[in-house]
Amino acid sequence: xxxxxxxxxxxxxxxxxxxxxxxxxxxxxxxxxxxxxxxxxxxxxxxxxxxxxxxxxxxxxxxxxxxxxxxxxxxxxxxxxxxxxxxxxxxxxxxxxxxxxxxxxxxxxxxxxxxxxxxxxxxxxxxxxxxxxxxxxxxxxxxxxxxxxxxxxxxxxxxxxxxxxxxxxxxxxxxxxxxxxxxxxxxxxxxxxxxxxxxxxxxxxxxxxxxx
Length: 212
Prior knowledge:
The structure is a single chain. The chain is mainly β. Helix content is 13%, strand content 42%. The radius of gyration is 16 Å and the shape is globular.
C-alpha cells in the first residue's frame, strides 16, 4: 500500500452536534463488522466536505501488485488532530454506541488522532487490501477501521471478501453512515469499488483499544 503523506497544517473542522439514541447494526457475527446510521447529519457531512475542499487534496497512488501494494487511485488529506478525534468520539455518539466493544485483548477507548479524508472521483477506486493494526504507545493499539461516509455517489461501495474469493457483503456510501470493521490479523480483504457518478467522500480513523 502506498505511503500516506501528511497534509501541511490542520484546518479548523466543523463542530458536530451531540447525537443520542443511535443504534449499531451488526453486519457480521460477534460485532466483527457494524454500521451506525446518523453519526453525522447530512448538513454536518456537507460541512466536512466543504472544509476538505477548501484545504485541498493530494492525489494518492501506489506502486501496484508487483511491489505487493494494492491498486490505489484517490485523493486524500491526512493530519494529526487529537482534539478532533476526541470530539468525533464523543459528539457522534460513538463513545456510547461502540465504547463497550471489547475482546480478549482490550476495550475501546477512543479514536486514532491520525485523521484521513478521502475523495474518489468517477473512475477512482482502491483495490483489494487489508488494514493493519497500529501501536499508539502506552499499550494502546487500533482494532477497528472507522469509515464515516460524507456523501453518496454512484458505485463506490465498500466490498468485503471471504474465503475462496467469495463476496460477503457490500456497503453503499450514505452521508453520516459509520462503518466499523475489525482489522489487523483478522481483517477481511476489502476494496473501495470504482465510483461511477458523483464524488465519494469518506472520513477515516480507527477505534483505539487499551488492554483490560
